[in-house]
Write a structure and sequence with these properties.
Blueprint (H helix, E strand, L loop, with lengths): L2 H19 L8 E4 L6 H9 L4 E4 L2 H11 L15 E4 L8 H7 L2 E5 L2 H14 L3 E6 L16 H9 L4 E7 L5 H24 L9 E3 L6 H6 L4 E4 L1 H4 L11
Length: 248
């Protein structure tokens, strides 16, 4: 068993325990391996261990890895064949949107009307659709991306009206537990869950069922609050080497 396999097995057990403690079905929580800054060799090991999708922060890094490993543009996280499904979880500038249209199966960081309209136009030209989540800044931190909770419904209405975009959920990055405490983090996750209910009640919003929230340090709190997707990097791939030359 490889190192990734062992770490995935351990994480899966932790997720299963957290789901059971919350009275939830274990299968209702998706583990998204976050592969940012990790080399393709690490991703090949992950694929051999059963991983079928990867989350990336930088669209140019996602595109470079997808060009080498292939890209499954299908809507199922189960994957088709051996090509992985690529998920953009970091901020996406409009001038990089074409990379996600070319290689991405899902965007979890949609945060503006202009980006939504640009993606819709490019996707229409490419003859495909894209699963998206709206990123909400529940912590109020200026360093974090995302719309405010108050802006969420307005953006959701616009996204629903874009025929090439399929709104499947909401995403957030909570403040750190050591900064606001567990109660503060839980409040942020609960706020996102409430917003998801509001969005799913909009005309055309019934498919907004997903909650992408929770990372290595707080995924158990997120699962208790209803998370359907936890984004985990270092706990699966090991420490990141931020000193490596970034993909251009």
């Amino acid at each position: 068993m490889t190192g990734f396999s062992q770490r995935l097995q351990a994480l899966s057990q932790q997720v299963a325990t957290a789901a059971a403690d919350a009275g939830r079905d274990v299968g209702s929580v998706r583990i998204l391996p976050v592969s940012k800054t990790h080399p393709v060799a690490d991703l090949r090991e992950a694929l051999e261990a059963g991983a079928r999708e990867f989350g990336e922060n930088k669209p140019q890094e996602l595109a470079a890895k997808a060009a080498e490993l292939g890209a499954n543009l299908g809507l199922s996280a189960d994957g088709n064949g051996e090509s992985p499904r690529w998920v953009q979880i970091g901020n996406l500038q409009r001038n990089k949107a074409k990379l996600i249209v070319a290689y991405g199966a899902e965007l979890q960081s949609l945060d503006s009307a202009k980006l939504a309209q640009t993606l819709n136009r490019l996707l229409d030209q490419a003859g495909r659709t894209l699963e998206v989540m709206i990123e909400v800044n529940t912590s109020g931190e200026e360093a974090k991306h995302g719309v405010t909770p108050e802006e969420t419904l307005e953006l959701a209405r616009l996204v629903i009206d874009q025929p090439q975009l399929h709104l499947i959920g909401l995403m957030t990055v909570a403040a750190r537990v050591d900064q606001v405490g567990e109660h503060g983090v839980i409040e942020m996750f609960s706020q996102l869950a409430g917003l998801r209910e509001d969005v799913s009640g909009l005309p055309g919003g019934a498919d907004c069922r997903e909650l992408s929230m929770g990372m290595s340090g707080d995924f158990e709190l997120a699962i208790a609050a209803g998370s359907t997707c936890v984004r985990v990097g270092s706990a699966l791939f090991g420490p990141r080497d931020y000193a490596q030359k970034p993909v251009q």
